[in-house]
Amino acid sequence: MINVYVPRDTSSLSMGADEVAIAISKLPTDINIIRNGTWGMTYLEPLVEVETKKGRVAYGPVTVSDVQSLYDSDFLSGGDHVLCQGLTSEIDYLKNQDRLTFARCGLIDPLSISDYLNNGGFEGLSNALKMSGTEIVDDVTTSGLRGRGGAAFPTGIKWNTVKDASGTQKYICCNADEGDSGTFSDRILMECDPFCLIEGMTIAGIAVGATKGYIYLRSEYPLCKEILHEALKIARSEKYLGSDIRGSRKSFDIEVRIGAGSYVCGEETAMLDSLEGKRGMVRAKPPLPAHVGLFGKPTVINNVISLASVPIILAKGGEYYKNFGIGRSRGTIAFQITGNVKRGGLIEKAFGVTLNELVNEYGGGTYTGKPIKTAQVGGPLGAYLSIDDFKLPLDYEAYSEKGLVLGHGGIVVFDETANMLDQAKFAFDFCAIESCGKCTPCRIGSTRGSELLDNLDVEGNMALTQELCELMDTSSLCAMGGMTPIPVKSALKHWPQDFEKS
Amino acid sequence: MIDMDKANEVINRFKDLEGGLLECLHGVQQAFGYVPKETVNVMADAFNLSRAEVHGVISYYHDFKTNPEGRKVVRICQAEACQSMGSRGLTERVKDVLNIDLGDTSADGEYSLEAVYCFGNCALSPNVEIDGKLHARVSSDNFEALLKQGDGA
User: Fold this and answer.
1) What count of other Cβ atoms lies within 10 Å of the Cβ of residue A242?
2) Model pTM greater than 0.90?
């Protein structure tokens, strides 16, 4: 019996992984097909791996029409083929990463709890169950972990606030509303290692005294929903969730709630309203959600990757995690290299790597082969970077000094054909479509901004655009209106020629 | 007239879920393909809300439809990563092929075309979803073939 891995995540399925799995299963050999997650080398999907004595040998990207020639080349013994990438663990793209949070993605069958346990799973929880809430929070504080959703707020401080808040009912809310274009690290984590998120949320619950968690998942991720439901069921039956977790007398359980296509519901307070079954309107702060959160109760709100980074911190200690990274940006961050790039995918690296390394070395330049014009870093509310800024170290402080944001680690590459007026106008249009409408600068400003850019030949409109950007930046209620000027201003600053009338 | 027994059955499943209106709306939409206006009163009663509040939630979210959709639903990503790989041109092509605009359903009820802001498959742009199946690296040339897949053609 030969073990063959064919991934089952959204990316590989969108490139025909199911069809490839069927074709391989029809080969006249005794084959055991394991549906693993993706390693994040999206450009090679579907990446088929064969278990050999030397290790797992990778072939990709495989289409149904390649299966016969792979068989003829004896790929089932690791034979050579034009699609052969060698041993998976030796592929440069993967080998040179710092895989902490994503260590199991691609390696395991996402729904096999024994795979999870055999690869370090639940070690963090098992340690946490022997610790006090304060000790757990201290360990997370020591690690230097900051919110990976985009705001980069220190996770330990947030947890401490909720731990110290009074109240009999507290909640852990996982923000899985990964709406930024150019990001999919949450999706990969949930599809490929769902127990890791479950473990992280459970540790958070034990630390702050919450017994109930919610995962607010965007509706665009139906496979995540399916996999999470299955994983929750398994975790409950194995006593990793529910009452009396592993005989500890501690209780925690998780429910998945599905969003409905609203970008601004990724903003934490809008997410709370949406979780409560309301319109996703942003709330004014204070009060902080840590004091008055979901259903008015003290609530920890963390992004998927923040929570999924907790198990390794508790397993290996805050000091271990802290040893990765630079300055005040500790640990690793999952970058997602996307858009017009030859080798797109997920790259988990310690902070401090540069865009040049990610886009040119890992990414191999543009997909179209044309010169790079820019990359938008940090999602729709992030800046378009000039090539000069590609040499900056990717860390929170170095970026914010320049008015840039890392956000959720999404990097969208554009070649020279990109028109920056179009991109700036899209920033306003997107804000107009997705604004919750609670504050005027965002609700009205976005539409006025789009109109201004449509009529730049009218004298004074360029100055008005700048003024509007200033206003939205300083007086919007949340990041949606407040940061929409960032992509607009960066486009105006670096590519003024794109805004001149033709 | 819709099947009110079915509507009641679906809504009853969710009415005790704390803050469960969104989940209920997803359930109703799954059962009927859209959220029929006849169900608004029932949901308002079940969740102890006003009809206006229920309407407010339905109209806030892009996902909830108040009319039946086309037999085939095409959703095309309009966000930046797909833009960088030519989604603007692809969208024009798709509109031409289906002969409808974004947000519309064709007069014969055959197609609906919707804008989506990111499927989270941005390393394989541009992305188009047809009847729930996501296709990556879609081009103006292969869109029609993808559209015909699953028709038994």
Assistant:
1) 15
2) yes
